[in-house]
Specification:
Elements: E1 6-11, E2 15-22, E3 25-33, H1 40-50, E4 58-63, E5 71-73, E6 80-82, H2 83-89, E7 94-99, H3 100-107, E8 116-120, E9 131-136, E10 140-147, E11 152-157, H4 169-178, H5 187-190, H6 193-206, H7 217-225, H8 230-254, E12 259-262, H9 265-269, H10 272-276, H11 279-284, H12 290-293, E13 298-301, H13 306-316
Parallel strand pairs: 1-4, 4-7, 9-12, 12-13
Antiparallel strand pairs: 1-2, 2-3, 5-6, 8-13, 9-10, 10-11
Helix pairs in contact: 3-13, 4-6, 6-8, 7-8
Length: about 325
């Protein structure tokens, strides 16, 4: 690690991933549990203390939520902080805070062939074509990339909070059940880790299966994969269908001839199940625009931390 290395962090609702980065690579990666630290500063100091004397003067953090103004509040976690005060407290000369999917988008142009898997459509997107990124983790992130004539420019968004449409009576019944808890059924409510739990609980109620236990997203996915619970199987199937619908909507909205990239921890952990799911079928299911969507490629990002790739490019100017 060189003396000019910068501090980077990918901070979600569950995990805070820290590392140091320079033009040679990413170093000293460490994952901390957000719930174990009262503030983001406490987590940063714990990480830096472990580096034994390293005092970076530049930092770039990716965070789950919209970054507007100086005050930032995480969407699915209690951390709230001032960007300016955090920079001063940590003794940084510069501190860039960006939406986590902006960081992911910045990393996409730097991906290698071994960092992605083709899911459907053409084998490659059109050169310099618009690119969409969507990814279910604890929440649902969305971003895009637009070619400015010289390079791709990232555009973060909050597409995870679009209104989710019901395409079948079963989906309508699930959404109606969830309306008792949520006044708005967004894509994130049914297409994320928390969304998987929501679908599972709604089906339990609809089918009179309150005898089934409360389950975490990981437990629901495991039971679906080993086919030990029909409610879990339907829940995961529905979530992959919803992801396909959202990704297809993003593709037609953007005119994403460069492709749609799927990020987030959930699809990657599902292995072959994801490739055999209804994701791609629902992606193309746009009526008159099915032929428009068929050639648009979809890719699963398999890089273990694509946000670090984007953050490294941010601090090095690559």
């Amino acid at each position: 690690m060189t003396a000019a290395a910068s501090l980077i962090a990918d901070i979600g609702a569950t995990n805070a991933r820290f590392a140091m980065a320079d033009d040679k690579g990413v170093y000293d990666q460490k994952v901390l549990q957000c719930a174990e630290y009262p503030t983001i500063v406490d987590a940063v100091k714990t990480y830096l203390d472990a580096l034994k004397g390293q005092s970076p003067k530049r930092a770039a953090f990716a965070v789950a939520g919209p970054v507007v103004g100086d005050e930032f509040q995480m969407t699915n976690h209690h951390w709230k902080f001032s960007i300016r005060e955090t920079q001063n407290t940590l003794g940084l000369n510069s501190f860039e805070l960006m939406n986590d999917f902006k960081a992911i988008a910045m990393g996409v142009p730097h991906l290698k062939a071994e960092d992605i898997k083709h899911v459907g459509g053409n084998k490659a997107g059109e050169p310099q074509g618009t690119i969409g990124i969507v990814g279910p983790g604890t929440g649902l992130g969305v971003a895009s990339l637009f070619w400015d004539g010289a390079k791709y420019r990232p555009n973060p968004g909050e597409g995870g909070h679009i209104t989710m449409p019901a395409k079948t009576q079963r989906e309508f019944d699930i959404f109606r059940t969830l309306r008792y808890k949520y006044h708005h059924i967004s894509a994130e409510r049914v297409c994320s880790g928390k969304g998987l739990v929501n679908i599972y609980n709604a089906i339990r109620i609809l089918d009179g299966r309150e005898d089934l236990p409360e389950r975490t997203p990981e437990q629901i996915a495991e039971c679906a994969l080993n086919k030990s619970c029909s409610v879990c199987e339907e829940s995961l199937d529905k979530m992959m269908s919803f992801l396909g619908t959202v990704a297809g909507d993003l593709a037609v909205t953007l005119g994403a001839s460069g492709g749609i990239y799927i990020a987030g921890g959930i699809p990657m952990k599902l292995g072959e199940y994801f490739f055999n799911s209804r994701f791609r079928k629902e992606f193309e299911a746009k009526g008159r625009y099915e032929s428009y969507l068929k050639p648009i490629p979809t890719f699963l990002i398999t890089h273990p931390n694509i946000a670090f790739v984007g953050l490294q490019s941010a601090v090095t100017g690559a």
